[in-house]
Amino acid sequence: MCHRIWRQHKFESEIIMVGLMGWGSVPVQGWRKGPWTPEEDKLLSEYVSSHGEGRWSSVARCSGLNRSGKSCRLRWVNYLRPGLKRGHITTMEEGIIIELHALWGNKWSTIARYLPGRTDNEIKNYWRTHFKKNQKQQKPKAQQPLEPKLQQQQQQQQEDHEIKLENGKMGEAQGKQEAISMEDQCLPVMYQEIDDHQARQQVASMYPTILEDLCLPVTYQDHLQGEDQGLWGGLWNLDDTIDHTISGGGNSSQNYYNGGYIF
DNA sequence: AAAAGATGCAACCGCCGAGTG
DNA sequence: CCACTCGGCGGTTGCATCTTT
């Protein structure tokens, strides 16, 4: 903690001249770089609180921060946004990461959607530090791309997605908007899009253990039913109270604690 | 105790796609 | 159609801290 503050001050007076880089239409702008100071954090938080997220280039110009819009967005998303979890990734979250990475690969932002409170950056870092090493040790399996069957499914899913988009049946924009507002309220975001439902089915078919082990609904009907029964409200409240291992395929569902429900 | 290596993580970079004029 | 800006994403880097030797 202390070292972070020290590092921040280390860069305090450092102004790096940046030409036409990144965002912003300012021809030559001396954006500050390096670690954020508490004052900058405060400025950014206050600005976003009163003006909302988005329009990051305006944030950069109007908030009084001498930071690029890109930098402001990153800081907000990865550090200042309300509802972010700090602390270690739990074993359950780890299990989800493993399963979803097997399905989607390095789609960190997509994976992060299933772990509210965690950022793509955090998951990415976690994966790199915890699993990259293992991948090297277990080259044949880990470095392989997706299994042919899975790849085929994924391709099919992508095609379906595109067709739906073309037909205007998905209402994706609306879905995303809903998802965003739900995230803002730190509520479960499992079923924000039809894609997610399909993905869930894929996870269920390819990796049958995780949904069972995590006691997640496999089908949309399951989800709706669960919603009616108020079962999923705390689903993603994966507290550190969980101290059960998911390793070895996580073959026992009775060990898991899900947001207040002990299974 | 000191050096070396591993780990954690914030932040930057470059690229891409959507939107707009 | 083209050029440009913006927002977002994945990859990478840099550095402090922790752990091992």
TrEMBL record:
Myb-like domain segment(s): 32-80, 81-131
Example of a GO MF term: DNA-binding transcription factor activity
Cellular localization per UniProt: Nucleus
Pfam family, one: Myb_DNA-binding
Chief localisation class: nucleus
Top-rank taxon, per record: Eukaryota
CDD domains (UniProt xref): SANT (cd00167)
The entry's keywords: DNA-binding, Nucleus, Repeat, Transcription, Transcription regulation
Record region (Disordered): 132-160
This protein's record includes keyword Nucleus: yes
Low complexity composition bias: residue spans: 140-157
Name listed for the protein in its UniProt record: Transcription factor MYB2
Species assigned in the record: Vitis vinifera (Grape)
